[in-house]
Structure prediction request, 252 residues.
Amino acid sequence: MNDSQRREEMLREMGISPIWRLRAGPGAAVDEPMPAARTLIAEEPSPQTAPLAPPPAEAGGMDWTALKACVADCTACGLHKGRNKTVFGVGDERANWLFVGEGPGADEDAQGEPFVGQAGKLLDNMLAAIHLKRDTNVYIANIVKCRPPGNRNPQTDEAAACAPYLKRQIELIRPKLIVALGKVAAVNLLGRDASIASLRGSVHDCGGIPLIVTYHPAYLLRTLPDKAKAWEDLCFAVSAMQGLQSAQAAAT
Ligand code: URA
Ligand code: SF4
Prediction:
């Protein structure tokens, strides 16, 4: 299988290939450039942007080993009561790419790893479509490390209690780009409320790290038409990453 066949297969698995083709016209390549309107606009970090709550003394400055141990024993919010396993995060600890979801579901709570259920399969396919793998140059984490009961959204106080862990993960990884998966991730990382629709297609700032927003894979599983938009977002993320890397190369 050559590269373009492999890519087409990924897109088919993601369920976006036919939709993308339909919009782009027959025979159009899946490598279609991003619409011109979606240029990279780095937003000025706004003063009211408080990306994450300040870390408690314990999380700030921790190394990976200490941080993992701290999360494994954490009882800082009510979510610890219902969890089976904490879900710390997984991947390359020096990745350029950081994908952030909402919180563990049932499968993740049972296995202790993020995005291993149905939504995780779609996320893996989304990563593969842009030639990424969850363990190579990618790190995957969540806003909260313990499963909210019945898969409800994490509450504000729970997300705030857990934020220092993700903040420290970000400090240790130093990713070039963060991709927020869904509204809960976006709102918590940006520190302001806004819709996914309004946040897509721009490069935002998360404490000095560029951040882009796309739909959550679990939402995409329920809402087929938006898969094409997620593909646009992934292409946008790739071009943002390329821009960041060439800007860095030029600066050195
Ligand atoms: N949904 C998420 O937001 N995170 C996971 O780890 C799994 C499903
Ligand atoms: Fe601790 Fe986060 Fe789990 Fe709450 S969700 S108990 S803050 S690890």
Summary: Strands lie at 90-91, 97-101, 138-142, 177-181, 204-206, 209-214. Residues 101-105, 108, 114-115, 119-120, 142, 218 surround uracil (ligand 1) (CB under 6 Å).
